[in-house]
Specification:
With about 475 residues, the protein is of the alpha/beta class. The protein has a single domain, classed as Alpha-Beta Barrel (TIM Barrel), CATH 3.20.20.70. It is built from 17 helices and 15 strands. The strands form 4 sheets. Strands 3-4-6-7-8-13-14-15 form an 8-stranded parallel β-barrel.
Length: about 475
């Protein structure tokens, strides 16, 4: 595998893609806003005009307070979102709609007592955006709030203790995450679902009151609403066929629309999922885990968006049907398309040259996974051209993000280019590109070291420890180094 940072020119990047039998649109030079870059073009979203085609993905920092309020670390990250120059801020980070649905004990949490904190977060972001780009810069800035329940991956009390709530028993995921096959106490009942719908609606009311233009009903990465999309074996109204498996999501959307008719709704969706992967034991040497290999035992439990006869092959027929249903029947205006899960197939979800410390080595060149996601979004856009779509996996392209990003937007592969990890290391990257500045000079481009993932997996706040000096000053930096050394 070739480190992309070692490629010095666009031609070298194109040649390396050709070696891998990959192809992406790729311009010779990044264009600035003054040069009419496709990334600088405004776009209408449900009657609101967003000022450009850059989007900040939601990222959890594991750094809120125990009662679910933002900390100084959280506020600093949201300040950076405002300074980014991106005109679509997708939810900032996941906000749990109920205490038992938190992914970690420091996740932001919606409660009546915390409601004002979400106004504060948005105010901080908008203030910094105005400071960086002018007093009326927020006129075309669209900010959302991501709402979630973590389902199988809830850790509401201790960072190292799962307290799962699941849609159905799964023959592979249950034993992998410590659930007994006969333990029905973890199953959500239909009554539980109706209570949860009310929690989503309450959080959406808070978001609307705080001035957010949209909420994201998070349906990705193995969390609860994503898991329901593969609940083929669940009996009753919330399982079985696609209408049943998507009913929970659609009822949340309908509830929010009834209570908050002026609030737009987005859905971040894992467009496709694959089976879990685990390190190949025959290629594990000492503490260095082997490359990921598929885990067997999925018979009768195909992942959403995967082919029934090959759960490592994409089948977009159901995702297309779901997206059409959400847009045409439910009035969802925005879609952010991701893939897979960080818990059981991270190379599918977040391609990285350097995996997290507890992860398997990449079983493929990460550029393959990057292109897989970009092409899947292209196929969705071709099938459903009227949808407003944010694409994912661009951070792995590193120096060549602008070259590819402006080309795919020009060619209609996506409407927005989403960046996540990169924002943690160089939060002004998009602004530099649009200004025509040298975005390479500061040497802050994300190299996918995965410390922002390794840290929270070990109970430490997330951030870019290698490239952001703020995190290098913290005691957690030394903890992280020791973890990575295996000490």
């Amino acid at each position: 595998m070739q480190r992309l940072g070692g490629l010095k020119t666009v031609d070298e990047f194109r040649a390396y893609m050709a070696e891998l039998a990959l192809s992406l649109p790729c311009d010779d030079e990044p264009l600035s806003a003054a040069q009419n870059s496709p990334l600088a073009q405004p776009i209408d979203i449900g009657g609101f005009t967003a000022g450009n085609r850059w989007c900040v993905h939601p990222m959890e920092g594991w750094d809120g307070t125990p009662d679910g309020r933002p900390s100084e670390y959280t506020l600093r990250r949201w300040e950076h979102f405002g300074q980014s120059g991106c005109k679509l801020i997708w939810g900032g980070e996941a906000v749990a709609v109920r205490a038992d649905g938190r992914a970690n004990p420091n996740q932001l949490l919606h409660t009546d007592a915390n409601a004002d904190e979400f106004s504060r977060l948005r105010d901080v972001l908008v203030r910094e955006h105005r400071h960086s780009f002018g007093p009326t810069a927020d006129d075309d800035l669209m900010v959302g709030l991501q709402l979630t329940h973590s389902g199988r991956f809830c850790r509401p009390h201790k960072k190292d203790r799962l307290e799962p709530r699941v849609a159905y028993h799964h023959p592979v995921l249950d034993p992998r995450f410590g659930i007994q096959p006969d333990d029905d106490s973890v199953l959500l009942t239909d009554g539980d679902i109706r209570e949860l719908i009310d929690c989503y609606v309450a959080a959406a009311r808070t978001a609307a009151k705080a001035g957010y233009q949209f909420v994201d009903v998070k349906s990705c990465h193995g969390y609860l609403l994503h898991e329901f999309l593969s609940a083929y074996t669940r009996p009753g109204p919330y399982g079985g066929d696609l209408a049943g498996r998507s009913r929970f999501l659609r009822e949340i959307v309908a509830g929010i629309q009834a209570e908050c008719p002026d609030l737009q709704i987005g859905v971040r969706l894992s467009l496709f999922d694959f089976c879990p992967f685990h390190p190949d034991p025959e290629k594990t040497v000492g503490s260095k885990l082997g490359p990921g290999i598929p885990t067997a035992g999925w018979e009768g439990h195909s992942p959403f968006g995967a082919a029934e006869d090959d759960i490592t092959r994409i089948d977009l027929s159901e995702p297309i049907e779901l997206l059409r249903m959400l847009a045409d029947e439910s009035g969802v205006t925005l879609f952010n398309l991701s893939a897979g899960s960080p818990y059981y197939n991270p190379h599918i979800q977040r391609p990285a040259f350097y995996p997290p410390s507890d992860g398997y080595q990449p079983p493929e060149d990460p550029l393959v996974g990057c292109v897989r996601q970009i092409e899947a979004v292209r196929d969705i856009k071709a099938a459903l051209p009227d949808l407003t779509i944010v694409g994912t996996a661009y951070s792995y392209l590193q120096e060549y993000i602008p070259h590819v990003a402006q080309a795919v937007v020009r060619e209609g592969w996506t409407d927005f280019v989403g960046i996540g990890r990169l924002i943690l290391s160089d939060w002004e990257f998009a602004a530099k590109v649009l200004k025509g500045e040298d975005y390479r000079a500061a040497k802050k481009i994300c190299r996918t070291f995965s410390d922002c993932t390794t840290a929270p997996r070990n109970g430490i706040i997330s951030g870019c420890y290698p490239l952001d000096p703020y995190y290098k000053q913290l005691a957690e930096f030394e903890q992280l180094k020791q973890i990575k050394r295996g000490t």
